[in-house]
Amino acid sequence: MKFGVIVFPGSNCDHDAYHVISKHVGQPVDFIWHRDTDLSSYDAVIIPGGFSYGDYLRAGALARFSPVMNSVKDFAARGRLVLGICNGFQILCEAGLLPGALIRNRDLHFICEHINIRVETTETAFTNRLRAGSVLSLPIAHAEGNYVCDDKTLEELQREDRIIFRYCDAGGETTGEANPNGSRDSIAGICNSARNVLGLMPHPERACEDLLGSADGSGVFSSLADTLAAQVSVY
Amino acid sequence: MNPEAITSEILSTHNLTEEEFARIKELLGREPGLTELGIFSVMWSEHCSYKSSRIHLKRLPTTGERVIVPPGENAGVVDVGDGWCAAFKVESHNHPSFIEPFQGAATGVGGILRDVFTMGARPLASMNSLRFGSLDQQQHGRRNRSLLAGVVAGLAHYGNAFGVPTIGGEVAFDDAYALNPLVNAFALGLVRRDQIFFGKATGVGNPVLYVGAKTGRDGIHGATMASAEFDEEAMEKRPTVQVGDPFLEKLLLEACLEAMRSGAVAGIQDMGAAGLTSSSCEMAARAGTGIELDLSLVPQRETGMTAYEMLLSESQERMLIVAHKGREREVIDIFRKWDLDAVVIGHVREGSNMVVVHNGETVADIPVAALTDEAPRYEREMKAGSAGGSSALSVRARTIERASTLAGEPPALPADAALDYNDFLLRLISSPNIASKEWVYCQYDHMVRTNTVVLPGADAAVVRIKETRRALAMCLDGNGRYCAANPREGAKLIVAEAARNVVCVGARPLAITNCLNFASPERPEVMWSFSEVIDGMAEACLAFNTPVVSGNVSFYNETEGRGILPTPVIGMVGLLEDVRRVIQHGFKRAGDHIALLGTTADDLSISEYAATIEGRTTDEMIQGGRVPVVDLERERAVQEATLRAAESGLLHSAHDCSDGGIAVALAECCFSSLNRSAIGAEVDLGGTIEIPARLFSESPSRIILSFDEAALGQIEEIAARANCPLTMLGRTGGNQLSIKVDDEEVINISVTELEAAWRTSLATKLRADVLVAGAE
């Protein structure tokens, strides 16, 4: 089992993802420079948070043209696992691997704080170790996390059980107040129809130790690792 | 060199005096050319030369067993154990932030980050200390609010994109800063002890490389601008404020660290104020070498730039590197990988001159020492301020001031019995100086890189060192009112509070950096307050064994003839040997003991109570008030007792008593935080002083502790051994904050109500404007 963390110019949560995989998941992990195109040795790829290319245009709008992104599309098409966190989610939307878009937060500010999300489904490789309906406390840190999509897409996401996380209050209720950025239907994370590509705005990699205020993010990574371990044993 | 007559008009636009010009001619043995005059003007500016402050700064303690790099380099460096060192510094960006808040503040962050990674250190955390005029002031309130919003957005923009956690600092409001806000940026980085880099141009024949962003015409004379007071035309100087590019800086960081690891780099220096000029001649000065540059080779963003413009440009995100001869290719390849320019533009030369060539013509040939060591030093006239610190206001400004403030005594408050202390506490807790600064720090990414152990809003922030069990605590503290009323005692109080803040999270104070914000040094009372501040700071730093390892002086903080209060800001860094021993200020459990280390005196005359409840103006407080007396021995005893108890794992919480006194401090201990619900408290404050003073006095050297019943005996013993007064105040529990004074309950208020007021106050004051600012 081997993980790759993609590094664009301007990625800045690359080290955090790397740290979690090597220290907490305890699996081999490489940084993948955005000009590299060979992903054949990896079982899962993480697109980390940050400000790829400065995000001066639209978050993720330039990163989708990096050479590595064509390889990520092939990688995903072959059913391999792709996890996009924060800027990674924005890039996946820009690249068309996930539907919808992330626009400026409702109040136009960058927001950094711990929020709550509800696990909506455990039917993915990223959440199968979690409990449906459970509430996770994770940090967010973004200016453009307001998820939007058209009615048809939303209906499709709902029908196909592809909304993986929703913002909620501590009791698990999805209220307007508990929605930090104005996302449609309180969406915090979604997956593609093949269920192997997940994008989410909150940072599970920042919440894998009690020392940092929450270890609730570790379930995402243990789900991922367990899924891969099962795949490896099948091979 | 172009022999052009230097007229007195040219001198004045360069902010140089006739005497200084005579000295330039003497040092050169001839008339300078215009380009050379430009070089002298920036290198001899107050900002670069420290010409007014240097003789005083010498009195600060700068050595200690942990000091690896004392002041003089881009950042100071201290040993933090296990082979790691912390490089840190605080620097002002006041003038640019007033002219253009967003970019002014953003480039301040960029500059201080470069100072840190120039030393080979990867930035671990940043903080900032901000001062503005009051938010609801009649005349300038709207502007103050928009300055705050702009500065915070700029700091957030740069730090967030760069990927360094901004973990806190301070935000304070006083009308003395209405037309001259203070924006001081702090950064700290980690470097292995054997991998520290220096800004030295060593090795004659070594190539000099220009790396990073291209040079444009932006920021020309920025250093000179920062060395003069402002007037009505200040806004016309907006083009001297540069535009920051945090993305480019992030690339520059990664490329520089990679180049340093390659072993090809001999010396490296940030191009900050006075850009190419100061970086090249300071590197040569430190190494005792000469340096030669060919400006035709400099990567340029605009066409037709003159030598003068290139030498004085302050374009951001640039560095100068001296590489080992023959290894320049390696450096260039690394920068190319990161899509950055890296060009050899000169070499280290024999002798001791800085020689600059442009299009085959020598445009400057100046002894390096003439620009650095031989720069003027002034022992400026000093005169004690008459009634304390209102000396910082000129007569003209004071007259204007008078018309807009309450004259004479504030209205007398009703007799004790009728005072509504619940209401006082609510008003204090929602005053902008005390209220939660969430609105500010939630805009900063304070968690990136997953090291932030204590989040913003605590006495000090704590960041762990991942590779070890250690962590660093850090805080920024200043108090202009105290320093205006009594600069020497004020400076001692600030250092004491900074050390106490670090102690309250369980860390031992290590060293400080300072940012000395003052009005014009040409006014004797300002210079006197500066000198007094230095002496007070030196005394306190010796007492706490916290040497000064870096810093910055910002003079000429005045606009339209009105100066700011003398405002030294201290950045204190402390060390936790074991990150698991970290403590915070929130009460943890119902039924715990609440105790006070230290004692409360009647220190209300310069306080948030005097300002908010009694409605006193800053001028009235400064002129009529008395600065608390800080007994450094007592302060050390309080801190030592807290640390002993924390290191023994006895404490559930510790909190510094400062703005708003013990009542506010207790309320803050009650409020909820991440993973912690709010919890009430029931206390009885004994003593003999008046009730308002018992509740709201801001006496120094006090820490509120909470701990388990079982720890009581040991804590009493620790306090006794440290010779530190310990008073039991009461117990935690319930949903109310109840404060009795001699058995009579004077405050009883729901913690939920208090917390809501505290949490929402700042956002409420800012909300309407922010929507407008965001739309712009």
The computed structural class of chain B is alpha+beta
Low-pLDDT regions of chain B = 386-411, 770-776
Strand proportion of chain A? 15-25%
Sheet with the most strands: spatial strand order of chain A: 2-1-3-4-11-10-9-6-7
Class of chain A, according to the CATH hierarchy? Alpha Beta
How is the main sheet of chain A built? 9 strands, mixed
Count of distinct structural domains of chain A: 1
Overall number of strands of chain B: 28
Secondary-structure-derived class of chain A: alpha/beta
Unreliable residue stretches of chain A: none
How far the N terminus sits from the C terminus of chain A, by CA atoms, comes to 12 Å
Number of helices of chain B: 27
CATH homologous group name of chain A: Class I glutamine amidotransferase (GATase) domain
Oligomer: heterodimer
Helix content of chain B: 25-40%
> How are the strands of the largest sheet of chain B arranged?
8-10-7-11-9-12-13
Mean pLDDT over the residues of chain B: 91
